[in-house]
Amino acid sequence: MRVGYFGGTFDPPHRGHLAVACAARDAFSLDLVLLAPTGKQPLKPDARSAPFADRLAMVELLCEGEVGLEASAIDAPRPDGSPNYTIDTLDRLRATLGSTEASAARLELFVVVGADAFLSLPLWHRPEGLLRAAEWIVVSRPGFSREDLRSVALPEDDAERVHLLESVDVPISATDVRSQLLAGERRLESLTPGVLAYIEARHLYGR
Ligand code: ATP
């Protein structure tokens, strides 16, 4: 079973996230891509975001009708309020998806990440362990070049597990979407209708 783990704030989830997840699924023949909103981002521990439950519900709506895409609560807020570290998430995924010897042997785990997020990898918790814990699919994002990615110095052995997926070119960010929502924009092509309806019903982002 080939499983992609795609973590993020998803505040809110948008069509850029959808394009990334679908492209990774198709290019790497993934059986399942788990889109997992994070309870507390380690690099932005004090950032304010919509509540976790709303972000998870919106990710569920984003995935609706998409083959092989699923929302996951694996990065729900920790009971002790500590940040969600990807290295721990990967351990938990291996424990749940590969709980028997046979399933563990068959499990192939991929981390799906946008180019901008991959550039911050040296700041993540235990980056060397992370690179060894899974295969990596680094997806292109407007404004980030192949040369930029070279600035992440990878030991030769680890570089083999990092794959670049350059077919995605979607100029959408959650920051821009939040500004558009706050400004009261009516037609928001960056969001799926289900996610937009949820935002309006729950009065998120000033709606
Ligand atoms: P923000 O603008 O608030 O920083 P964001 O749009 O980058 O948000 P996140 O939820 O922080 O969204 O991103 C989760 C993951 O999705 C990250 O790995 C990020 O690089 C990736 N990602 C988000 N949008 C895109 C996009 N348009 N193209 C490629 N990757 C993306």
From TrEMBL:
Catalytic activity of the protein = nicotinate beta-D-ribonucleotide + ATP + H(+) = deamido-NAD(+) + diphosphate
Q: Which residues form the signal peptide?
A: none
Lineage, top-rank taxon, reads: Bacteria
E.C. designation(s): 2.7.7.18
Q: What are the record keywords, sorted?
A: ATP-binding, NAD, Nucleotide-binding, Nucleotidyltransferase, Pyridine nucleotide biosynthesis, Transferase
> Where do the Cytidyltransferase-like domain residues begin and end?
5-179
Keyword NAD in annotation: yes
Enzyme class label: transferase
Pathway in which this enzyme or protein is active: Cofactor biosynthesis; NAD(+) biosynthesis; deamido-NAD(+) from nicotinate D-ribonucleotide: step 1/1
One GO process term, biological-process aspect: NAD+ biosynthetic process
Q: Which InterPro entries match?
A: Cyt_trans-like (IPR004821), NadD/NMNAT (IPR005248), Rossmann-like_a/b/a_fold (IPR014729)
Q: Which GO terms describe its molecular function?
A: ATP binding; nicotinate-nucleotide adenylyltransferase activity
Q: What function does the entry list?
A: Catalyzes the reversible adenylation of nicotinate mononucleotide (NaMN) to nicotinic acid adenine dinucleotide (NaAD).
User: So what family is this one in?
Assistant: Belongs to the NadD family.
- Write the protein's name: Probable nicotinate-nucleotide adenylyltransferase
Annotated organism of origin: Bryocella elongata
